[in-house]
Amino acid sequence: MDEGRKIRVLVAKPGLDGHDRGAKVVARALRDAGMEVIYTGLRQTPEQIVAAAIQEDVDVVAMSILSGAHNYLFPRVMQLLRERGVDDVLVVGGGIIPDEDIPGLKECGIAEVFTPGASTADTVKFIRENIKR
Amino acid sequence: MDWQEIVSRALARDIRAVSRLMSIVEDRRSGFEAAYAAIYPRTGRAHVIGITGPPGSGKSTLVDKMAAEYRGRGKTVGIVAVDPTSPFTGGALLGDRLRMQRHSLDDGVFIRSMGTRGHLGGVARATSGVVDVLDAAGYDYVLIETVGVGQSEVEIASLADTVALVQVPGLGDDIQVIKAGVMEIGDVFVVNKKDRPGVERVVAEIRMALDLAGNGPGRGRAYVGHHGPTGATAGTVDATEAAPWRPPILQTMAESGEGVAEVCDTCDAHICRLAQDGALVERRLRRAKSETMQIASDLIWRGLADDPRTLEAAEGLAWKVARREMDPYAAGWSLRGLIVD
To answer: Are B30 and A47 in contact (CB < 8 Å)?
Structure first.
């Protein structure tokens, strides 16, 4: 009888770059696809992102990084989620991520990485098809 | 985790369980009524404060600063921040948390964002349930931030013990403040962005509106304008006096935190006063009544909307009404007869 389920997504900008246009475009696209998007803004630490994801009970964490620190920040978020026992959240990433880094990120649990040129429709579709609950 | 385990862990303030329980209540997932029944006896202990006001008046920033102030006093704080859901797509961008993220690593603060999901009135249908989860989990204060309100979103008055109405200079003339609606529900008036021009005028207009209210029926209280100068803080409100509560008008600059401690003091003074003169019982009774009536009305409506027999009858009646063979009231009674009998 789950009457009112909506897909809840945390959109976050980990690390120190100040470029949030991409994150805002994605946030808006997810909103227009009928999802509830919690936007936490710039310069979030992995700890803050994980705490917010837990309090908001989101289905998806979507992170955008343009600083080049993705090989540290993405795995760190995955590690913290595991430490808190959270295994039912879909985590996706986006930003300027070199192709050769993507396999490693997927290895550590990032479900998909969307790089420049990816369409928001694909992101929406991926989320709908892959949420874990 | 089944719901029994979620409930027992939520009552022990396990963050993940609190959060999951909120989703169960908000989405009305199966078993939610039993889960809610299990936590309900533990509610009624938190001081629930509603923060309402127009979009951009600084509600989120004020909530953020009030949470910091109460934390500094050793209290725990739950925050429920409501933003509008799109009536077109059903989606929502919940952005209040943006201004509160510095609390996210503090276990004494729990922040939850909600979309209105089609509910009008300034909050979501499930806001009261989410507030109850925080209350049952033992948070000392629950701050509810409403959507940015216009003039008639007054539902917060039936959810909160204390309503703080935030105003800012430059929004309109003095007729705006004597219109019916939100202006009637403030227990505490906060004039934010006090560095802006026109602040004295807003304060004067609110004061005048409160004076004019005289013995007005706002929330069943009489406003007898005999308390000293407005701008009175908790210190000047004599709680032992039998006079009715006159909403103080405070000036703040939430961004810098200026005046926020006085807002917290005044909210505390307000609930003390309510407790002393018996109005708290009355107010909570009113909340219980409106909640119960709302649920009954939802159940009746759902009985109507879910039953194919009534849907078919409704269709037939609609045709009659459209052809002017029957008036809508007669059709309404006829439909009601189908479910009540």
So the answer is: no
Chain B interface mutation, best of A6, A20, A28, A77, highest count of B Cβ atoms under 10 Å: A6
Provide the domain limits for residue B23. Answer: 1-41
* Count of CB pairs separated by less than 8 Å, A with B: 94
Q: Are residues B169 and B216 in the same domain?
A: yes
A4 against A14, higher pLDDT: A14
CATH level 3 topology of A8-128: Rossmann fold (3.40.50)
Give contacts of A34 with chain B, Cβ < 8 Å: 89-91
Domain boundaries, chain A: 8-128
pTM of the entire structure? 0.88
Tens digits of residue pLDDT in B181-195: 777 889 999 999 999
Cβ–Cβ below 8 Å for B27 and A3: yes
Strand order in the sheet with B109-115: B109-115, B77-83, B141-145, B47-52, B162-167, B188-191, B249-251
- Same domain? B175 vs B79: yes
CA distance B191 to B249: 7
Q: What is the mean pLDDT of chain B?
A: 87
Residue-wise pLDDT for B62-91, tens only, equals 999 999 999 999 999 999 999 999 989 999
Q: Rounding to the nearest 10 degrees, give the CA dihedral for residues B227, B229, B234, B238.
A: -30
CB contact under 8 A, A54 and B15: yes
Judge whether B177 and B205 are in contact, CB under 8 Å: yes
What's the complex ipTM? 0.93
Is residue B256 in a domain?
A: yes
Does A18 score more than 90 pLDDT? no
Position B227 scores a pLDDT of 40
Question: Which chain B residue lies closest to A81 (C-alpha atoms)?
Answer: B16
Q: Do B90 and A85 touch (CB under 8 A)?
A: no
